[in-house]
Amino acid sequence: MPLLKKNDEFWMRVKQLAQKSIKSAAYDYFIEPAQLLGIDDDTANILVESSFHKDYWRKQSDLIMTAGLEIFDKPIRFSLYAKDDISEDELNVLTQESSELIQELDTFKPPVPMMTGLNKKYRFGNFVQGPGNRWTLAAAVAVADKPGDTYNPLFIYGGAGLGKTHLMHAIGNEILNDNPHAKVKYVSSENFVNDYVNATRKNQMESFEETYRNLDLLLLDDVQFFSDKEGTKTEFFNTFNALYEKGAQIVLTSDRIPQELNNLEERLVSRFSWGLTTDITAPDYETRMAILLIKSEASQLEFPSDTLGYIAGQIDSNVRELEGALNRVEFVAKANNVSVVDIETASQALRSLKSSAAQTMSNLTIKRIQEEVAKFYHISLSDLVGPKRPKEIAFPRQIAMYLVRELLGTSLPAIGNAFGGRDHTTVMYAYKQISDKMKSDSDVQKDIDSIKQKFQ
Ligand SMILES: Nc1ncnc2c1ncn2[C@@H]1O[C@H](COP(=O)(O)OP(=O)(O)OP(=O)(O)O)[C@@H](O)[C@H]1O
């Protein structure tokens, strides 16, 4: 059997073994999204979602060993690479090495997969239903079942961290599951705009249109951040019409109802209401408990239900924050060598989170944050709050806005005022940009940590 097929067989076997031995929530979260980059010198190179996933995978050597012995008749070692700490160059080298290996050993070439932008970990199966999301979940499942038919477009709105993006990806994953040839693309509004701007700059509008107008499913996230430049708005309008007319499914998300999207033209906004507009609200206590139960199953620690109940009682409005609280508790428990996490440990972990925030808050002002950020990036305070927009200034400005929001909890309009009278949507955009970058770019995380240290 050619080696490529054996690699596939090996990877399938790893997953089969995992499915038997690991609970389904942990399987969906840790195992399913991982990718085998290739097998080089008896070592399987595996790409996982984050360093956190790496910790989990490290304990799965039995799976790799058993599958290696079964398929290759020899033990296979493994190296783990996390998406959040591997550079694009390293990934290219690893992928290239694997593809060189493939070319050497096998003439079969897999089709180049379309860049769907989907994250496989977001599925309907690991989305917890509750009163705040029941109807939206039902609509999303209906759309995935009959794309382009039932609700088109589907417009999902709601507050931060409530699962809008999760459901979007789940629709895409489900449709691809049913039809692997479906042309699916998930894109943030910002990236849609970037793609368009790059295409016009490089004279590649044909290929841009080819990509976007031939889709079967377009998932466009955070339309409130859509640029209000005429060219991009018109392009979006035309893309929307082209897709709608050919019966392709469109799903959009936003933090507000379509009628409040002042950045978009009315003719486009009115099209959004041709389909279904549906909201997600904050999860109730039972839903938060169920979410914590699923997420904690992926941990090696034991979380009794009264501990989960305690955490669910502390964070009530944002699932992302709920996950963050659970991670924090897990971190503190591990640091204290605790294996069964009791309420005392959880409250210690969350108390220190709150008290350090309170401590910081009592000494800190917006001005102080602005000064430290300006100093850190070697720019002047007046540039930081002024109108200039080059990247060397705009990026520190976004960092400063993020820190003010994060550390002082100042309202968006008040932050806008403190940064030269900017609109609250600019602040919201900056906050989102930096939160996203922190997940994907460890340099941004390091910058933030270094600046925060100045306040301690
Ligand atoms: N009902 C749920 N069940 C399981 N996980 C959930 C649920 N709701 C949210 N989450 C998780 O919470 C995190 C944040 O969700 P998501 O990114 O989808 O939020 P969002 O509404 O798109 O937020 P934003 O508007 O800030 O982008 C994700 O890890 C997601 O998996």
UniProtKB/TrEMBL annotation:
Gene3D superfamilies: 1.10.1750.10, 1.10.8.60, 3.30.300.180, P-loop containing nucleotide triphosphate hydrolases. Keywords: ATP-binding, Cytoplasm, DNA replication, DNA-binding, Lipid-binding, Nucleotide-binding. Residues 365-434 form the Chromosomal replication initiator DnaA C-terminal domain. Residues 1-90 are annotated as: Domain I, interacts with DnaA modulators. ATP binds at residues 161, 163-165. CDD domains: AAA, Bac_DnaA_C. Residues 117-333 are annotated as: Domain III, AAA+ region. Its main location: cytoplasm. Residues 334-456 are annotated as: Domain IV, binds dsDNA. PROSITE patterns: DNAA (PS01008). It is found in: Cytoplasm. Residues 150-281 form the AAA+ ATPase domain. Oligomerizes as a right-handed, spiral filament on DNA at oriC. Plays an essential role in the initiation and regulation of chromosomal replication. ATP-DnaA binds to the origin of replication (oriC) to initiate formation of the DNA replication initiation complex once per cell cycle. Binds the DnaA box (a 9 base pair repeat at the origin) and separates the double-stranded (ds)DNA. Forms a right-handed helical filament on oriC DNA; dsDNA binds to the exterior of the filament while single-stranded (ss)DNA is stabiized in the filament's interior. Domain I is involved in oligomerization and binding regulators, domain II is flexibile and of varying length in different bacteria, domain III forms the AAA+ region, while domain IV binds dsDNA. Belongs to the DnaA family. This is Chromosomal replication initiator protein DnaA.
